[in-house]
Structures are given as C-alpha cells and as structure tokens.
Amino acid sequence: MAKVVPPHLNPATMKKDIDPNAIKLGSKEALEYVSWLVHPNRLFDVAMTTYDFDLVTLVASQTQKDPKEYVPYIESLKAEESVDYMKFRVHNDLKDYDKALKKLLKSPNPEHFEEAVTLTRKQRLFREAMNTLEAMPENELHAARLKQIKLAFGTYLDQRGYRDEAGLMFMASGDLEQAQVSFGKAGNVTMSLAVVAQRTDLSAEQREQVKEDLIERLINSLRYEEAGDMIDHTSDFNGALDCYLKGNSFAKAIKLC
Questions:
Q1: How does DSSP assign 118-179, residue by residue?
Q2: pLDDT of residue 24
Q3: pTM of structure
Q4: Distance CA 54, CA 51 (A)
Q5: What is the pLDDT of residue 129?
Q6: Which positions of the chain have pLDDT values less than 50?
Q7: Which of the 8 DSSP states describes residue 8?
Q8: For the chain, what are the domain ranges?
Q9: In this structure, how many other beta carbons lie within 10 angstroms of the beta carbon of residue 213?
Q10: CB 3.0 to 4.6 Å from 247: which of 46, 94, 161, 224, for a disulfide?
Q11: Start-to-end CA span in the chain (Å)
Q12: Residues 174, 155: Cα–Cα separation, whole Å
C-alpha cells in the first residue's frame, strides 16, 4: 500500500495549503489549526524542506519556536553561495541523508564532492551515489566522480570480506590492479587470471609471480585439486602430483602419470 502523506506535511503541497500572503493579511487560522494537529518541530522540519524561508519563519512564529533557535540558522542557510549546498545542509540536518547526498552531488565544487564521498562512506550510500551520478549528463567531471565512488565502494566491500564483489567493483572503476588483489584474496582463480590477461602493465615475470601466488593461496586454503590444475605439469610434475593426491583427485593423479 502506498504511503499517504497528509497535505499539511507534504512539501510539494505545503505552499499551496498555506498561503504566506493570506497569513500576512491576518488569515492565520489555517496554520494555527494545523499547528494543533502536528508537533511543532515536525511542522517546522517539513517547512524547511520547501526551502521557502519566509514560509519557514511564518511557521516558526505560529508554532511558538524561540527566534534565537531558528533565526541564526535560517540566516546561515540564506548566506550559502551554492543553492545545492544549502539544500544539502537542510536535509543533512534533518538526517535525511539520501536526499542530502543527492543535493550535494549536484554541486560542481570539489570540496563539496569530497564531503559527499565522506557522507557516502559514513552512511553507506554507495548505490545511491552511483545511481545519482549515472543519471547525470555524461561528461568528464561526472565520470571521474563516478569512478571515485566505485573505488570507495570497492574498498568498503574488500575491508568487510566481500572480495569477489570488491573485485567486480574495482573492475567497474577501471582499477585492474586492485581488482586482481581482491580476486586473489578470494581465491577466485578464473577472475584473477581474467584480470591479469587484461593488464598490459605486467611483464612475463610478473604474470608468472601472480600465478605462483594464486597456487600458494589455493594450497593454503586446502584447494589442492585447483592448485594442481594451475601447476605446469611439465616443469613441476611432482608438485602437481602431490596436490592431486592431497586433494584425493586420484583420477587426475593417474592420468598425470
């Protein structure tokens, strides 16, 4: 069932229901009536989300809020040079972090974006941040910001042990080195080798070292059969045979002999 928001608490209709001009002329009965139905702080918060500070002031005066509490705050919001940052502050102070992030990501200011990244990490709003940036017009700025959010998400996933998911997110960001590290930690041989194949910065020796590291990780994880499959049977016959025997892969051990 869809959530029904009363008109007097809906920012989209609030200005229509409460006409500031009518109030100034003395028709305050409607607002006074609403203030009896709704907690004053709730009514004030909803008024804030209209960004109409004349309306906010009127609501505050009718709900008997102390001017010392809201006047300096409203003035500080009016003084913001960026409208997007002003809207961010409103929603952030109301703890509506999803909307706050969306407003903040619209600002072209680099410092505001760094604040958006911090908010994204703190409130774990990675998907919301990516969806917001992906919906914006394609340009170098938005592409760079999206990459940074994906990197932050990959780091978050890796730190919490979601190695495969982290690897995929790093791949999506274009950071193949970090993707390889995450897939390696997960013991995901297929994806690790797939990433190595895409990396043009690795020498033959480095590629071989990656393979050896994967084999060692598989052995330490008791995944002997997979380790045996990765070992070069020509150069390390005994190593491959030992892995197959430890992994009870006797058919492969016999075939190897």
A1: HHHHHHT-HHHHHHHHHTSPP-HHHHHHHHHHHHHHHHHHHHTT-HHHHHHHHHHHT-HHHH
A2: 47
A3: 0.77
A4: 9
A5: 97
A6: 8, 18, 20, 22-27
A7: G
A8: 1-65
A9: 13
A10: 224
A11: 67
A12: 14
